[in-house]
Write a structure and sequence with these properties.
This protein has a single domain (about 5-195), classed as CDP-alcohol phosphotransferase transmembrane (TM) domain (Four Helix Bundle (Hemerythrin (Met), subunit A), Up-down Bundle), CATH 1.20.120.1760. α2 (about 30-50) runs antiparallel to α3 (about 60-80). The protein is an all-alpha fold. The chain is about 75% helix and about 0% strand.
Amino acid sequence: MPTLYALKPAFQARLRPLADWLARTGVTANQITLLAAALSIATGAAVAAFADHRGVFLLMPAVLFARMALNAIDGMLAREHGQTSRLGMYLNELCDVVSDLALILAFAIAFPVWGVVAFAIAAIIAEYAGVLGVAAGTGRNYAGPFGKSDRALALGIIGFLIACGLWVQVLTPFVFPAMATLSLATAINRIRSGLRGDR
C-alpha cells in the first residue's frame, strides 16, 4: 500500500546539494540525527508548555517538515558519503522513536489523553514492525497506509488548523484513535509484506 514515502527520492534530490555541502564542511550523519531528535523534543516541550497560546502549534508543521528534511539528509550523508556505522543505525532508530513520542504526546494537552497515547504506542509498533524486516532478512519495510511521513503530514495539518483557529471540535475525540487504528493497520501490513519478502 503506497505512502508518502514513495516521494522520498524526489525529496532527497532537492536536498542533495545541501547534504553534499554539509559533508564537505565536516558535519556527520549522526550529528544530524541527534539534531533532529533534539529539535523534536524541544518542540514537543514548547507546545505542551504553551498550548494555551494556539499560535505555538504552528511549530508543529514547521518542525515536522524540518525533521523529515534532516532525516533525509542524515540518510544521504550515511549512504553517499561513507558515514554508515553501527552507532548510526542505533541512533537513527532510537531517535526516530524518541522524536515521535515527543511530538505526538505534546497533543495530549489539546486532545483526549488516551487517544494520543494509543496513537503514540501504535506508531512505535508500526516502526518496530518495519525494522524487524532487517532481522528477518528481508530489509526494512515501509508498507503503508500510515508511515512516518504520513504521520508527520497529519500532525502538521492538525497543528496548523489549531493555530489558525480552524480546527473542527467535533473531530477532537476521534482523530487520534483513527490515526492509532491506521498505524496498527500499517504494522500488520508491514508484517505481511515482510513475510512475503517485500519491502
